[in-house]
Amino acid sequence: MAKKEKTISVSVNDIERQGQSVEQVLIRDRVIGEVIADGTRFKATLEDSGETFSVKSQEEGLETILAQYHLHQG
């Protein structure tokens, strides 16, 4: 029997922290991660584990956070 697909609402908030632009990734009202500029690259950080990934773009950071969230939910 196949699992039924679920629709999950994901939102992104752009905030300013200590003069630096931060992109917060939220599912429902819970922050699951952040994407922060780091020179010419970006850092994607997971909120729960604090694990950080070095990525090339904000889009890649968002994809990484969502993939890791999906991977570890169960």
Task: Describe this structure as you would to a colleague.
- With 74 residues, this protein is an alpha+beta fold.
- The chain has one domain.
- It is built from 1 helix and 5 strands, in the order E-E-E-E-E-H.
- The protein has a 5-stranded antiparallel β-sheet with strand order 1-2-3-4-5, with helices on one face.
- A hairpin with a 5-residue loop joins strand 4 and strand 5.
- It is globular.
- The two termini are 18 Å apart.
- The model has no long low-confidence stretch (mean pLDDT 90).
Annotation keywords:
single chain, 74 residues, alpha+beta, 5-stranded antiparallel sheet, 1 helix, 5 strands
The helix/strand class is: alpha+beta
Shape: globular
How many structural domains? 1
| Order of neighbouring strands in the sheet with most strands | 1-2-3-4-5
Short description:
The protein is 20% helix and 47% strand. The protein has 74 residues and is an alpha+beta fold.
